[in-house]
Structures are given as C-alpha cells and as structure tokens.
Design brief:
152 residues; mainly alpha; Four Helix Bundle (Hemerythrin (Met), subunit A); two-stranded antiparallel ribbon; 2 strands; elongated
Length: 152
C-alpha cells in the first residue's frame, strides 16, 4: 500500500467532510447550543463540531505517525477537547483549517508507508493508517446526522 490508496479514498473522505462542514453553516450560535429534545446528555451541534475538530487533529497525527511506523494514541471515544473554541463561528473556522490539513494527508504520507502497524479503535479494532483515513468518511457521516438531528 502507498499514498496511492489514500488518493483513491480521498474523494469519499473529502465529500463527507464537506457535507459535515456545510451542515454547520445553517446553524446560528443559538441553534448550535440547543440540545436535541432539551436533553443535556445529548450533544448540541457545537459539541459535535468540537468533537469532530478534536478527532480530526488527533487522527491526523495517528495516520501520519502510523505511516512512518510509529504508533501514537488515539483519544478515547466521545472525546471533547477541553481547549476547543467556544463559539460555533470559531469552531467552524478551526475545523475548516484542520480539514484542509487532514485532506492533505495523501500528499504527506510517504510512498512506502508502513502497511502493518495499527492503532486500535474501540469498536472497529486495529486499523492501519489507510483504515483510519477511510474511517473519517463514516465518522463524519455519523456526526452529520447528529448535527442535523440537533438542528431539527
């Protein structure tokens, strides 16, 4: 495997990320703070965006490190970064920047990347760098539905 695999996955990953970012555009700051059904245990759109930002920054490091043959830890499932931006506008901006960097991974991963080393996902088990990149599309799709539900 090589960065060619990431280039094959790129359109799907990029489309899922674009759809997620677009879902945040229709929310006002007040909308983004509303919890679905008024249940504070359910993430509001702001928290979902904060999570996706933290996940993106972490998984970017996981993927790049795995490709170099070094395993770095993945944040726990449901991680919300303690230092995440506190407004939707700030999170959207930070997430757009992080997404540009994340979607550049196929160009940053070496042509002869480590194909064996894995980092475990709590649900999907051990994944290589390409598996993590591919997982981003499904991850964004789950959280897209979550934002849409929070804004409904």
């Amino acid at each position: 495997m090589s960065n060619a695999r990431l280039l094959e996955l790129w359109p799907t990953v990029a489309a899922a990320r674009a759809a997620f970012l677009h879902s945040l555009e229709r929310a006002s700051e007040a909308d983004a703070l509303r919890h679905p059904g008024g249940d504070e245990r359910e993430w509001c759109a702001l928290q979902v965006a904060q999570h996706v930002l933290g996940w993106t920054l972490n998984v970017d490091k996981v993927i790049e490190s795995l490709a170099r043959g070094v395993a770095v830890p993945k944040h726990p499932r449901g991680y919300l970064p303690p230092d995440a931006p506190s407004t939707l506008a700030e999170v959207r901006h930070a997430l757009a920047e992080a997404s540009v960097r994340f979607l550049d991974l196929p160009l940053r991963v070496a042509e002869q990347a480590d194909e064996v080393l894995t980092v475990a996902h709590e649900v999907y088990g051990p994944m290589t760098y390409a598996g993590w990149f591919e997982r981003c599309a499904a991850h964004d799709g789950i959280h897209l539905a979550q934002v849409e539900g929070a804004l409904a």
